[in-house]
Amino acid sequence: MPTEILMPALSPTMEEGTLAKWVKNVGDEVAPGDVIAEIETDKATMEVEAVDEGRIGKILVEAGTEGVKVNAPIAILLGEGESESDIGKSGGDAGGEPKVATKKDDEPVAHSGDQARSAATVTPLEERRVPAEGKTHPDPEDPVGDFAQELPEGTEMVSTTVREALRDAMAEEMRRDQAVFVMGEEVAEYQGAYKITQGLLDEFGARRVVDTPITEHGFAGLGVGAAFGGLRPIVEFMTFNFAMQAIDQIINSAAKTLYMAGGQMGCPIVFRGPNGAAARVAAQHSQDYAAWYSHIPGLKVVQPYSAADAKGLLKSAIRDPNPVIFLENEILYGHSFDVPKLDDWTVPIGKARVHRKGSDVTIVSFGIGMTYAVKAAEELAGQGIDAEVIDLRTIRPMDMQTVLRSVKKTNRCVTVEEGYPQSSVGAHIASEIMVHAFDYLDAPVLKVAGKDVPMPYAANLEKLALPSVKDVIDAVKAVCYRD
Amino acid sequence: MAGRQSSASGGSAKSKRSKTVDTESGKEIVRTLEEFSAPKPADFSKDEELRAYRDMLLIRRFEEKAGQLYGMGFIGGFCHLYIGQEAVVVGMQMAMKDGDQVITGYRDHGHMLATGMEARGVMAELTGRRSGYSKGKGGSMHMFSKEKKFYGGHGIVGAQVPIGTGLAFANRYNDQDSVAITYFGDGAANQGQVYESFNMASLWKLPVIYVIENNRYAMGTSVARASAETDFSHRGLSFKIPGIQIDGMDVRAVKAAGDMAAEHCRSGEGPIILEMMTYRYRGHSMSDPAKYRTRDEVQKMRSESDPIEQVKKRLLENHGMSEDEVKEIDKEVREIVADSADFAQNDPEPDPSELWTDIYADEIPQVAE
């Protein structure tokens, strides 16, 4: 049966074009790959190549014709043993409408039409809520978030710095799983730029504690490849400011591969290091990236405050089958907290912790933001305001259940973070509360954030740029309508 | 040292240090770099020629069909065809052992077919259907097969280079004999992360073969207009990585270089660069203005250096095959491709619920909840 040669599209948006020139003529033999014609649009020129072997039987569209619709037959190709007299038999009117529909026209049989929405159409909320098949979402009544991490009776608590807790977490996981290794700048012989990896080289050797050159983009990508290859890398960034050099590998390679591979292959990796302002290191070394990473589906984002959470969450992060961004804080490294003395202390990712129970207002924070929140709550107690303080611990997936349950009780909420205010974690929380607890609110949700400026160097300006305990107290009083 | 090479054809890199002799023909095998030189291609057995012919032809026909389906609107977005470069991936694949890994950029259909991934699954991914390798969620540039050790399919120019280096890191960490074959183009060769990877790979002696597919144009920019050093086999010198230029249109030359490079890696000597001098016949993507090179240039490569025609000629002249016997292979390949196209047009689109799957490897609610 003679084959129709159709007008091809240069791009998914092309609907018609000019048939500029025929390179082959009626009677010419063509082989696959031979250029048979040239087509043009306002944007580009393209050669039309033969896909099948045969002889040009008839030219249906003359050279120079403008406005030739995509998929319109432009010529007829005759196969072996076929002649011009067979042309009428090509399964319908050869010169008529194309048999194969374009995307704009009827969908091919197999398309399930509802998928082909134009970009301008807003997906109805119901559809966006379609849960993934086989996935169960947390029960809204699940009390887990209301947190009392159950410890065996008589568990000994040991005062530990965040620094030691992080080191212990890595050491325990490296003992547990041979596939776990840590790499980064100065993690081995120098014992860690901030001494988080202290002692690991001695215990695990240079094979598993790997000093890298100063090459963030390179070793982040190398870590991703190692994870693809079956290892469990912990990639330390000396600070997350430098991870900006590696952002493409973190987002495009680590976070998106599982989805792009249809679930076939993922990237279990931990990117960790200090994040946010330290002290007097100015704009390029002082930024909180919590909101940035929390924007990305495929990443989990953890930002602990206490040493117990730092340890338990880092162990969970290392075991997690997904890429986890683990945001630490240089100032918190030296803070001591009680850590339970247990063989295997883990904290689940995605669960907030009620740090302080209260009834008048909910203060939501995470990481070093908790230092302001906790002090503010103490001072407020003295002034007769009983604040509930929630430590989010994980920014993504965010435990909104715990936040909402608290806000429905207190009817007021203040968020606290060091990051910039626009598109901040607090902004997201405020939006979620508005959607899910609007009727419970007695005041607008206020967010306390870092000032909307690059971090200055001067001590007094730096202090002004960061949130303060007073900022939190003022915000709480504002939502409580107190002076 | 130009025009010199080892007497032991296809032998190890080490042997080349002791003995070199002048080349006989030297055709497009460009020159020696330090002690390394392109190994003399050995003649293929009839079986090898047949495999090369069939595998290259499958890629050629598949790509032609993909181009056609793109023109018909079945394939969307970007679609980068491999036509002209088939000898590179097929020759390298013939040099590989089980367990070796492959990773490349976005001109990846040929690599997938060469690793043995099914034409149906690749084509169905191109049409965005549920039986595609990524369930229709990855498309032309993002496909993977853990089973076939194909690690993508990467849409960001150069991003596959550190990742391939990481696969080699894992091989070394696990004490495995496998080699990570990391392909990238002359365009990607100017990305900074490539050199970050070179440095670490050489420092840690990682078993990675960097295959630079120099097809002369990064989109529409010729190598000379983009690169201060146009000899990419030199690009590893500052990192003590040897490099060789290879006639990437001759599948035998590619295989010989692949054999040598794999042995170099497996013997613990670290990475090596193979610069494949190749050519893409088609545009960069589907909408290519084709203004940056002449038709004559393309035509000359097609008529004088076509990798498939070279093998076909040898099958006919040296291995006693008849035109009809070769046509049988053509027919078989054409059937596979036609079947894949038919399948890919009729396979259903992914179920809408798939929008929400495979974001995390465990059960995580998304923000829309």
CATH class of chain B: Alpha Beta
The Rg value of chain A, from CA coordinates, equals 31 Å
Number of helices of chain B: 12
Strand order of the largest sheet of chain B: 3-4-5-9-8
The CATH level-2 architecture of chain B is identified as 3-Layer(aba) Sandwich
Structural category of chain B is alpha/beta
Note the main sheet of chain A.
7 strands, mixed
- What's the number of extended β-strand segments of chain A? 22
Main beta sheet of chain B: 5 strands, parallel
**What are the segments of chain B in which pLDDT stays under 50 over at least 5 consecutive residues?**
1-33
CATH superfamily of the largest domain in chain A: Thiamin diphosphate (ThDP)-binding fold, Pyr/PP domains
In the CATH hierarchy, the third-tier topology of the largest domain in chain A is known as: Rossmann fold
Task: State the distance separating the first and last CA atoms of chain B.
Answer: 66 Å
Number of helices of chain A: 13
CATH superfamily of chain B: Thiamin diphosphate (ThDP)-binding fold, Pyr/PP domains
The proportion of residues forming helix of chain B, as a percent range, comes to 40-55%
Oligomer: heterodimer
Proportion of helical residues of chain A: 25-40%
Task: Based on Cα principal axes, name the global outline of chain A.
Answer: elongated
End-to-end distance of chain A = 88 Å
Q: Which stretches of chain A are low in confidence, meaning pLDDT under 50 for 5 or more residues running?
A: 90-148
Task: Describe the structure in your own words.
Chain A contains 13 helices and 22 strands. In chain A, helix 9 crosses helix 13. The longest helix of chain A is centred in the middle third of the chain and has 15 residues. Chain A starts with a strand and ends with a helix. Chain B is of the alpha/beta class. In chain B, helix 2 packs antiparallel against helix 11, helix 3 packs across helix 9 and helix 6 packs parallel to helix 7. In chain B, the strands form 3 sheets. Chain B has a 5-stranded parallel sheet, with helices on both faces. In chain B, strands 1-2 form a two-stranded antiparallel ribbon. Chain B has a two-stranded antiparallel ribbon with strand order 6-7. Helices cover 40% and strands 9% of the residues of chain B. The relative contact order of chain B is 0.16. Chains A and B meet through strand 5, helix 1, helix 4, helix 5 and helix 6 of A and helix 2, helix 6 and helix 7 of B.
